Amino acid sequence: MKFSALAIAAAAQVASAHYFFDTNIVGGTAAPAFKYVRQSSRAIKYNPIKFSSNPAADIRDGSTVDGPDIVCNQGAFASAGKTEVLTVNAGEEVRLKLAVGAKFQHPGPALVYMSKAPSSVKSYDGSGDWFKIFEEGVCGNGDFTSDAWCTYNRDWVAAKIPKDTPNGEYLVRMEHIGVHRSHVNQPEHYVSCLQVKVQGGGSGSPGPMVKFPGAYKATDPYANFSIYNGKKDFPMPGPAVWKGGAGGSSSTPAKEEAAPAVSAAPAAPAAPVANKPTTLVPVAKPSPQAGCASLYGQCGGSGFNGAKCCSAGTCKSMNQWYSQCLN
Ligand SMILES: [Cu+2]
Fold first, then answer.
1. Span 135-142, mean pLDDT?
2. Which residues are found with C-beta within 5 Å of the ion, ligand 1?
3. How remote is the CA of residue 104 from the centroid of ligand 1, in Å?
């Protein structure tokens, strides 16, 4: 009896580290689950996507980073027709939230991409060109194996649709990558797509463009990165973030070029479209409150040994285990 209860607790703990997106938040209100987010057909919804070169036993539901499931998750295109299209203004934020109360409890980056549908997004399989509109990696002084990562213990990823984005229907692809096993070449990808119609947009040429699958390779630096034995710059996967304007010639630069940008906050001054949550306070510069958590950093909670103060925002209790610096 006791033993089985323990076993169940252990299993639940493992499962809770995994996650999937099911809804988006508009103006503070969550849309019904899978109203605008394509639902996957995976047997186990929260399973990650791994490289096909990983040991077979580690690959879940047959989904691979170098296969079609990396686009919007396994079987998601089959639900495209019954998924509605969210109208968003260029410049507005889109925000995806995790299902079943899960939080990102793997260290790793979040990335947001867009791809324009040739006509209706309800009939678009995502095989066209993708550009990146957002990425966030490390943004705190915390533990590099956990809460130093911007998304750690959060349950959402948000990005602003760049103002210059041409009007039309798009897939917005939200991705979180757990990199706790990248040192053994096993990053875990969690992906979902939102169907949107952009209005009030501009005449920018998004880019650089990549394809899914194709944007990530098992030999990429991020897929062979160790979060252990000290903090280091994280080589962000995929292309550079499109910041609006004509930035996107269709020539795709080498992935490695994206690397140096990483752990620092986004190059803010050059990016008026950068979205609030991304404008994380760089922690490199000592401030009067050096040692305190940065915006969105953890500032308290049962078992938390870090500084219980915020260098930006106010420390708010999310639950017994987690307090966060928020505006
Ligand atoms: Cu995992």
1. 94
2. 188
3. 10
